[in-house]
TrEMBL record, chain A:
SUPFAM superfamilies: beta and beta-prime subunits of DNA dependent RNA-polymerase (SSF64484). DNA-dependent RNA polymerase catalyzes the transcription of DNA into RNA using the four ribonucleoside triphosphates as substrates. It is an enzyme of class 2 (transferase). Belongs to the RNA polymerase beta chain family. It holds the Pfam family RNA_pol_Rpb2_1. One of its GO terms (cellular component) is DNA-directed RNA polymerase complex. One of its GO terms (biological process) is DNA-templated transcription. This is DNA-directed RNA polymerase subunit beta. It is found in: Nucleus. NCBIfam families: PRK09606.1. It comes from the Eukaryota. It catalyses: RNA(n) + a ribonucleoside 5'-triphosphate = RNA(n+1) + diphosphate. It comes from Marchantia polymorpha subsp. ruderalis. Its EC number is 2.7.7.6.
TrEMBL record, chain B:
GO terms for molecular function: DNA binding; DNA-directed RNA polymerase activity; protein dimerization activity. PANTHER family: DNA-DIRECTED RNA POLYMERASE, DNA-DIRECTED RNA POLYMERASE II SUBUNIT RPB3. GO terms for cellular component: RNA polymerase II, core complex; RNA polymerase IV complex; RNA polymerase V complex. It comes from the Eukaryota. It comes from Marchantia polymorpha subsp. ruderalis. The lineage of its organism: Eukaryota, Viridiplantae, Streptophyta, Embryophyta, Marchantiophyta. It is found in: Nucleus. InterPro entries: DNA-dir_RNA_pol_30-40kDasu_CS, DNA-dir_RNA_pol_insert, DNA-dir_RNA_pol_RpoA/D/Rpb3, RBP11-like, RNAP_Rpo3/Rpb3/RPAC1, RNApol_insert_sf, Rpo3/RPB3_RNA_Pol_subunit. Keywords: Acetylation, DNA-directed RNA polymerase, Nucleus, Transcription. This is DNA-directed RNA polymerase RpoA/D/Rpb3-type domain-containing protein.
Amino acid sequence: MVAETKPSILETESKANIRKVKFEESCKADGDLKYADPRVAFEKELYGGKHLEVPLRSTVDKFALLPAFLKVKGLVKQHIDSFNYLINCEIKKIIHAKANEKITSDVDPNFYLKFTDIFVGKPCVEQDYIVEDITPHQCRLRDMTYAAPISVDVEYTRGKEIVVRKGKDGQGALVIGRMPLMLRSSRCVLYGKNEAELAKLGECPLDPGGYFVVKGTEKVILIQEQLSKNRIIIDTDSHGNVAASVTSSTHERKSKTNLAVKHEKIYLRHNTFGDDIPIVIVLKAMGVENDQEIVQMVGRDPKYAGILAPSMQECVSLSIYSQQQALEYLGSKVKSSRNMWVKAKRSKVDEARDILANVVLAHVPVIQYDFRNKCIYIAVMIRRMLEAMLNSEAVDDKDYVGNKRLELAGQLLALLFEDCFKRMNGELKKHVDITLSKANRSTQFDIAKCMRPDFLTSGLEHAISSGNWTVKRFRMDRKGVTQVVSRLSFIAALGHMTRITSQFEKTRKVSGPRALQPSQWGMLCPCDTPEGEACGLVKNLALMTHVTTDEDEGPIIALCTTLGVEDLSMLSGEELHAGSTFIVFFNGTILGVHRRPLRFADHLRKLRRAGKIGEFVSLHVHSGQRCIYIASDGGRVCRPLVIADKGVSRVKEHHMKELKDGFRTFEDFLREGLVEFLDVNEENNCLIALYEADATPATTHIEIEPFTILGVCAGLIPYPHHNQSPRNTYQCAMGKQAMGNIAYNQLSRMDTLLYMLVYPQRPLLTTKSIELVGYDKLGAGQNASVAVMSYSGYDIEDAIVMNKSSLDRGFGRCIVVKKYSTSLKKYQNRTADRIVAPQMIATGKNNIMAVASRCQLQDQDGIAAVGEMIRPGDIYVNKQSPINTRDDVPNPMAMKDSAYKPTPQTYKGPPGECAVVDKVLLTSNDENHFMIKALIRHTRRPEIGDKFSSRHGQKGVCGTIVQQEDFPFSEKGVCPDLIMNPHGFPSRMTVGKMIELLGGKAGVMSGKFHYGSAFGEPSGHADTVHAISNTLIRNGFSYSGKDFIYSGITGHPLQAYVFMGPIYYQKLKHMVLDKMHARARGPRVVLTRQPTEGRSREGGLRLGEMERDCLIAYGASMMILERLMISSDQFQIQVCTVCGLLGHYNHNLKMSYCSSCKNGASIATMKLPYACKLLFQELQSMNICPRLTLSEA
Amino acid sequence: MDTVTSYTRFPTVRIRELKDDYIKFELKDTDPSIANALRRIMIAEVPTLAIDLVEIETNSSVLNDEFLSHRLGLIPLKSERAMEMRLSRDCDACDGDGSCMYCSVEFTLNVKCTSDQTLDVTSHDLISSDPSVVPVDNNLAQDINGFDAPEARGILIVKLRRGQELKLRAIARKGIGKDHAKWSPAATVAFQFEPEIHINEALMESLSLEEKKEWVDSCPTKVFEVDPQTQQVVVVDAEAYTYDEEILKKAEAMGKTGLVDIISRDDSFIFTVESTGAIQASQMFINAIEILKTKLDAVRLSFDTEEADDQFGELGAHMRGGGM
């Protein structure tokens, strides 16, 4: 064995390739150090150092780790973790930040207000000065915001005395606003509750939380993807020149610094400077006056120095030699800032120095104008650029997942909170200044009484409810950050929580950011992305992904120093790149260098596995850049993997048994160093085996379960690995439109639109993911018996033929529930809307009935009665509004009936259909607005044109419905529920669907659920076709799944065997009833008198340009005339043949008259489209005079 | 016309198995069209009774009114009387309000859960106004353990929890499966063409015992057997053959094409009929024949003219009695 020494790497080598070889050797040497596993040593002894072909090891079924992981981490843990971090830590950091902590006054220098602590309390609402606890479900029903008070401890001056106010029991003394709470976060009432307790709170236990309830609507803050902050990204611009860019981000400032190559010289480009600055001048301005040192810092290697020479020369040609000269040069290039007039004017030199210290590369701290760290940082940037110029492979990939950070709800809210907090402080300060500047005040000024909590409350609430994130400080103005949680199906809601949007423009036609990245393996789902413009930009997290939150940097930096990281200030430029030293980066800043990088990495990893530093700290040795990157920042994606020593998994059979018996949790696996989290960058240092059996001695990690590379939506697909890839993508989109059960509390919810299946089923062919996410409990589909054959010709183009008897028995039957709500408004003159009983007449002894037929469904309170039929046009709330809502009314509480006008709320539904009033809710929100919400329920059975889909992206509409006796049957008496055309298979290549059919059939016969998890065959999470076929044969079926079928029409056997069995079918929300539309005559637009547009306005069917072109080409002129004018907006006008202007017909004189000629002699009548007449008049109103010249045709 | 040969055949029925809700029989000496007609009639045209109108007074259960009504409709009712009853649309004795004995039967259901345990509302809770029309009761009494078998508890309609109540009036009417599957008395009606299997003994003898066994085992269903005594392949259950042709493929693969000859007879059918319990399976078949006869009568009577003869050609004569 090689001893600990690494002889070769200590020698300084000038040639990179030699170094690389040597480096690999040293890797081996380093690896051998870890040869401490007694088992390996034993094997070595036993077999004389020879390895067997297959090492002796049993494969452990690690699947049980997955439910254990989801138990502690959950599917939306990233949201909840990030929000918890905000309300527990980040918020405290924000108020303790130097800029925020204190409010002082320009008027009274003694005055101050200091925030000493901040707390986010329990969710509650204050109503009529009574504080009441609230639950999320209450908020949903009552259109309130689920929020908790933010309270602070303060210390301030009141006159001469200093007042210290402290709250107790985790509550501050002063409430400064209300923070919308994320469901299931640590402050939420649902936190840590079991199923029964959740049920009591009216909450579905399967609902993952992770969203907000703002004004009654559920809002999710989408995960935002962006390029990582504070990292050097080497890129090439459009001219092929190398450029380095860093987006610095600190709490105070965000800035982007670019280094670019122009005419073979390197320049700094920054928006505080009006011009590109030669980089050498920048370095000189930072105090590196010595050219030699600059070269040393970048690298003494002649190949680098050669490229650097022109830049050096330029500096000389500008005759800048000293720091002072450089600063003066920079000062002359500084853009004059707008608020110059505010501050006292400083010298240009000072200004330039300040910019260099605080704005350029803001994340590299400069303490007391010691630019050393920043110089080295720039030097490293230059070095990386030079490297990229010599070797194009060194250019960074912007789309690489390791270069991305995900911004979660916590981070986004932190930005917003800080902004609101700053604005609130600004307002307070203004108030203080005004009050204190008044000479004689009657009472002593107490600032605690001036705090206005609605500033923060409305700021946060408004941002979440509108989705507009505006932070002026950082010039951030994002739209659509939040979305309403889609409650179309359970999976839609779940999928919404894991969605990631990119900041890229959707319109740009770039393929890079949209393409599937190899590095997203295991982190982001490869299947789940929408089609169309957002394709590839909107992504979804995979099943086991975790997104990190920020971690304290101090201890890790201290630890690195202890482990031998040498501080930069002690090194010369020469030593920076000397020999075996590696530069250590920590969260984007340079910490120092280390001489034994691999040992350092090994130590740090061991410490992490031992739990001494956070489990999400990642460490990544980049041998090409000779750097070590340590990251503890938030927003990195990572996932758990089983650690392997020399290819032998650390997780053994007994561990799994302990887990099964409940003696062990996922946390224990982490703590004992059996499993660890790896982020994308660290994965580069690892060799990860898919299965334990594939592990070689070089293997460092083993996947827990391969199917976890898929996300929630793709996890529903059985055998997705047998399908053509786009089909899985289609299914991911369609699974979100499938109806079924939404949540356990679906009947107590008041959603605007709710689609439910009458008899939802659990899929016969399940996957492990389905069980993990709970789709088996809240299914969205039914197991249909499908025959794959051609039938009747109404099955072309993916249409399906359905069995009428199946529909009679409830297949595909669905309930559509729609919310109609109204509120009783209060007006400024203290009048208010009211609800009155409809006019009734007695119809019998005890019966009374409303006079108007459209009021007959109402109770005597004037509101629709539950259980009543409702038809389009019926009035569900008999509301009246006061006619006068402005002027004062003598007695607003008891006005005459004549002072009200009826404003009835009518139901608009599909014509001809009658629905039922399902539920009526009378409530008021926290602002005491009385509301009435009525749910109207409509039960529908499938009809021709309704859309169905299997779980393999095979959608189709119902082509025809056929009587059962006409349906084919097998001699066992099996008659399919639907018939699918076999042409759906060859081009789509959805082999998974065929296996689903086989597996489903075998499942029915053997009475157990079969599995079809992705890539599950080797691990037993998917049944093989072979095993399924055997089951089929055992039950007297053909191994191929084909049956001998008789025609139901003739009774003769069919010519071919028919592939028949159960497939899980989803009913999609697109139904003919909601879409069908026709019109003969109908409403017209007032302005143009043309028919209205769109189904909702009962609009006309447009004869478009292309149709018109056809008619022109065909020469059907009269047809065009009829379609475009007579049937649309024909109008008769009077035209004066003399002046060519429009006249009019005077009905009193019974003659036409031209008002401009004052004459009725020569008027002609003609027909033209009203829109044309309108155009003439509009032109006239703009002082353009259109004149018609008529001639006899 | 006199030269037309007679189409008349004299089909026979041989009953193999007979239970209340199950019948298996052979239908011989007829053609597929007749067999299929009978099957179709059993599914779609044998009348039964099913709940068709539901008037809900109180429903505080978890299921909504339409949902419950749908479930109620699908409960099979004993419908021995159905053949004599009138369809409510043809009934001139009433206006379809359910109080008419010729066309409808009234049911009431009134259940309230007062205990802490979940209460199952089943078809037993439906109280009929006519003792002969009651929900089907597969009275399997008790299973071995002494507990009520799930079937004995009736068909589940809805579960109620404490305080929930269900009170309704339902009217059952006569109808046929063509209108709605709830009126179909058939759970399963299927027939198969009787297979006729001829083993080529000479060729079979050329096989060794192992080969015979291998060949016999290649059939997914148990059709053949090697007689342990004579070591000859015998047909044990020809009807188990599902026309899968596995056995022919196997023979071909063994190089013994023509080892066995299988023909499906198109004049002999084996019917399997399962009833929902609304009417006895045997009665269902008899009713089907009855209905087929009336339908044919209708055709015969309405077209008993010379024009009809022209229209139907040879068949016209046939319909009037096979040209006799």
